[in-house]
Amino acid sequence: MKRIILLGISLLTYCSVFAQGVKFDTISLDQALARAQAEGKLVFVDVTASWCEPCRLMFEEVLSKKEVGEFCNKQFVCIQIDIDKLEGKDFKKKYGVKSLPTFFILQKDGTVRHRLQGSRRPEDFLAWANRGVSETSSLFFLNSLLEQKQKMSLQNRVDYYLVLQDTRKLHEADSLRSVLFEQTSFEKLIDKECWPLFSGDTYGSEYFEYVVKHGDKFREKQGKDRIDDYLVQGYKHEILRLMYDCQASPEAFDLIEQITTALSVPGRTMISEEDKVRVVLAWAKEVKAFLENDISGMVEGMRELVELNEWKDCLWYAMKYVGVNGNGEDKERMGQFTFKMLFEFANTPVEQWDFYQKFRFLGFPISCNGKFWSNALEQVRVKDKPLLLECVRGNDAYFIARNWAWDLPERVSYLDSLCVSVRIDMDDPAVAFLKEGFEITNYPAYFLLDKEGKVKYSWEGMIEEDQVFRDSLRKGLEGI
């Protein structure tokens, strides 16, 4: 084959792409503390284990985010400690690690400055890290106030409430919140420093109802968007709980009616933006149809939710129910808007393929592989890179099992640093021309094309070893 050369291909390229998240140094705790001392930083420790699924999700969905990486890499020397290894066992005993994931911010002498147990969203994780860096809101500072029996300000007490939540001392956190709620004036409660006492609550709690009752005053202090989003999430959480519980009780229908009515009462302080009201009402209709086993109503409800860009939460749960219990007509109607979900809601090719597999599994008709192919060709033109075409059969369960192993974020980043890549289901009639043109006999099949669309390298069959796959890719890029 004609030889091609792609300049600048190296492992360094891969590392620089993935380094947008938290950069973990492969050093011991003692070395990290010494480096922190020399650089004037704190030490961030991600306590993890190879078998911990929540740890993996935190790494992929939070610690790999650019904004999280920018903050942590600037403030901390960052390391990961595996509790199943020798250093991890010692760390677990010394620092009292009882669950995973757990995160620590350590001072330069190794004492605990701040601690977090459990998973968080990126924005909540950053808020926790900021509190740990601050001199006046960290666990270390607040504990020192308590030990010295110094008087705490209202801000100190609210920060301590957050510390109790972060360290899973939930009973103590609830007790402190109750005291603060009773002892703090109305003018202070609606102020920003007290907002953590209310955030996260759902419909029915006294804190949620307090915000509803004094919505106008809260909006003046907190801003309209914060309060609207808080109310939407509170109502949605309670409605979605009914779907997860799967109990079509009179109480469940009464609750849906109460929330629907509450959003419709003239003059009551509620959500100010009409579109956000529509989101809650659409979920109320969807869950009501679910509890009534009204498949047709569920499909119509999902159509409205998709129009409102509400594809997350338990929409997959509802779609699975339609896939299992719906008839051919129901599934055909679902296919009318799954295309939009695939190309407007999925953020990456990996996520698109995930959507596509779910739609196929549920029996919803979707023909999108032609679009996958045309999008890939456009990316080749824009990025000025070669194209790796991965040809599979969507019903090949064995391939799909391997597929998820390759689709880890760091490996996807490595692949993206070298070329444009696209995975095509060759069972889709829309891409029959590819199957014929490339004369494919075995699956999966891989074709490396130059920017003019000429095949420069190809191979067929399963490659399970990560390094072997990378070697095959590099071999093709170098040209043979």
From TrEMBL:
It comes from the Bacteria. PROSITE patterns: THIOREDOXIN_1 (PS00194), THIOREDOXIN_2 (PS51352). Residues 1-19 form the signal peptide. Residues 5-134 form the Thioredoxin domain. Pfam families: Thioredoxin_7. Keywords: Redox-active center, Signal. The keyword Signal applies. The keyword Transferase does not apply. InterPro entries: Thioredoxin-like_sf, Thioredoxin_CS, Thioredoxin_domain, Thioredoxin_ResA/DsbE_sf. Transmembrane segments: none annotated. This is Thioredoxin. It comes from Butyricimonas faecalis. The lineage of its organism: Bacteria, Pseudomonadati, Bacteroidota, Bacteroidia, Bacteroidales.
